[in-house]
Amino acid sequence: MHHDYDSQRQYTLQHDRRLSAGSGHLQCEGVDLPALAAEFGSPLFVYSAPEIRRNIAEIQQAFASHANTRICYASKACSLLAVLQVVRATGISIEANSANEIRRCLAAGFAGNEIVYNGVVKRDEELEFAIRQQLHAINVDSEQELLAIDRISRQLQTPVRICLRVEPNVRAATHEGLMTAFRAKSGVDLADAERICRQVAAMPHVRLCGLHMHVGDQVPDAEPFAAATRVLVETARRLESTLNIRFDMINVGGGIPTPYRYASDRGLGGPDNMQPAIGAAEFADAVIRAVHAWRQDIEICIEPGRKVVGSAAVLLTGLVSGKRKTLLNEDGSVEGQVDWRMLDAGFNAIPDYKDWYFYVYNASRITDSHNQPVKLGGPLCDGGDYFRHGPLGEQFLLPEASAVGDVLAFLDVGAYQLENQTVYNAQPRSAAVLIEDAGHYRLIRRQERFDDMLLLERDLA
């Protein structure tokens, strides 16, 4: 297992389009990563604009056979303004999941008609704001939400485009918390779709443009997407015929997985969906084949998030201390020894620490063999604040010479990690750097300061 992991490290350095070695250090797009940690502190997220553009181009190419495709980046994956601006410059659209996410999209330069609005809970004030922005579509999650949209659009005398989100009842082989099309809180029952859609005819400002769904996140195979799209298409076909309408669009959501264990990796590590068998091409083929069996002119809307930014960032964390501890049984007998390495990033920085697999390399000694088993612990008081999925079960592999002051790199942390950071134990949220092109970078979010943490509590009198 040691050999497999070290072989993968060497293969990555030789073949990865983002990463390389220089002067013994790990580089991203030609930028020295330990030097960035020295300049801006750690933990530090480092995003690659070229990788975001490459990922979007991959999705565009995958859907090239259906010209009328609208790619809406799921901004919840990473909503940093600088990242949204990189996405916008590629010409694609965007998806938001709250009124404030809509505001972020607008602040990044997206027009209202480039935004799709999702969410299972949309308060009246959020719907009013969204309707005023003349969005491309609001994905309606319930009958009550539709009635609220009708009421607010009448008050505003403003047209609004909607899709009805339905649950296709398709299970996917991913983490249960990431399934959204099977026994999920999202969407309405297929059996209720016709009754709900019929109500739109009496709504003067509401236009029903199509149906929406989302199968789930990090789904490792194509069949759930194909099956769910067939359900969505059949429902849309039936509604068009029964209600004598013609849909403008069909929104199949996102879910294109990111390989957290690469195809070349022959070792072990993490849940099965960390090494998916599909990418954008297989996702697109499954969707397009099902839609073209019905109509070829309709707009296909997709909402990829993880696929756009997942591989576009690394987290740099400092090795602060280390210690060797004895594993004792209850009777006092010795079971073994554990070599701990303590980092300045824990589950405050990487919330997916329990369920995800990340390659972790010593960026300060990237050309050294990674063959020393260690456990990686974070700075928080919780006994559970350590990383679970390494190449040796709960153990990771680092160079034997790893020392205090070294910088470790967690790969492929671009999606959902920075967005879900906490300030538990008063740990500040991390700074972020954007590498704009080879060798050029800038700070796009500073590290949170103590005064920032008190802003919501001070000056209340």
UniProtKB/TrEMBL annotation:
<keyword id="KW-0210">Decarboxylase</keyword>
<dbReference type="InterPro" id="IPR022653">
    <property type="entry name" value="De-COase2_pyr-phos_BS"/>
</dbReference>
<dbReference type="GO" id="GO:0009089">
    <property type="term" value="P:lysine biosynthetic process via diaminopimelate"/>
</dbReference>
<keyword id="KW-0456">Lyase</keyword>
<dbReference type="InterPro" id="IPR000183">
    <property type="entry name" value="Orn/DAP/Arg_de-COase"/>
</dbReference>
<dbReference type="InterPro" id="IPR029066">
    <property type="entry name" value="PLP-binding_barrel"/>
</dbReference>
<dbReference type="GO" id="GO:0008836">
    <property type="term" value="F:diaminopimelate decarboxylase activity"/>
</dbReference>
<feature type="domain" description="Orn/DAP/Arg decarboxylase 2 N-terminal">
    <location>
        <begin position="51"/>
        <end position="309"/>
    </location>
</feature>
<keyword id="KW-0663">Pyridoxal phosphate</keyword>
<protein>
    <recommendedName>
        <fullName>Diaminopimelate decarboxylase</fullName>
        <ecNumber>4.1.1.20</ecNumber>
    </recommendedName>
</protein>
<dbReference type="Pfam" id="PF02784">
    <property type="entry name" value="Orn_Arg_deC_N"/>
</dbReference>
<feature type="active site" description="Proton donor">
    <location>
        <position position="381"/>
    </location>
</feature>
<dbReference type="InterPro" id="IPR022644">
    <property type="entry name" value="De-COase2_N"/>
</dbReference>
<comment type="pathway">
    <text>Amino-acid biosynthesis; L-lysine biosynthesis via DAP pathway; L-lysine from DL-2,6-diaminopimelate: step 1/1.</text>
</comment>
<keyword id="KW-0028">Amino-acid biosynthesis</keyword>
<keyword id="KW-0457">Lysine biosynthesis</keyword>
<dbReference type="InterPro" id="IPR002986">
    <property type="entry name" value="DAP_deCOOHase_LysA"/>
</dbReference>
<feature type="modified residue" description="N6-(pyridoxal phosphate)lysine">
    <location>
        <position position="76"/>
    </location>
</feature>
<dbReference type="InterPro" id="IPR009006">
    <property type="entry name" value="Ala_racemase/Decarboxylase_C"/>
</dbReference>
